[in-house]
TrEMBL record:
<dbReference type="Pfam" id="PF05099">
    <property type="entry name" value="TerB"/>
</dbReference>
<dbReference type="InterPro" id="IPR007791">
    <property type="entry name" value="DjlA_N"/>
</dbReference>
<feature type="domain" description="Co-chaperone DjlA N-terminal">
    <location>
        <begin position="27"/>
        <end position="142"/>
    </location>
</feature>
<protein>
    <submittedName>
        <fullName>Protein YhgI</fullName>
    </submittedName>
</protein>
<dbReference type="InterPro" id="IPR029024">
    <property type="entry name" value="TerB-like"/>
</dbReference>
Amino acid sequence: MGLFERLSQALNPQVDEPRDVERAQRISAAVLLLEMAHADHRHDDAEYAEIRRQLQSHFGLDAAETEELIAAAAPKAEQSVSLYKYLKTLNNGLSEGEKRQVLEMLWRVAYADHHIDAHEEHLLRELSELLYLPHEQFIRAKLAVTGE
């Protein structure tokens, strides 16, 4: 196998099993939630607790499964230079409604401390656009979470 083929395979791994697709989507969502928690450059226990709540609620996970998912996503979030791979996984596999739910999860993590930092809002706007959601959905998610 040549260099180009290996590089292409590394950047676009084949995910054939529905379970693998679902796991990739869960990890991708968890990576985005962890990035949101880091956006304000502070470690906030409320945001991490909200990540756990959102993952459990959205994916129907128990506490152990949630911790396993976070453990799988955390190194990816820490080492990632770009979120493109994770956004691509979500864009390719989720409907607009499901992506809107992910955006609302992101808002809930950002607002867990009852404050939206400028860095958090910037990242929320950017992720909303990269999920190809109309600005109206950004506003609706914000209102649903903050009431503002």
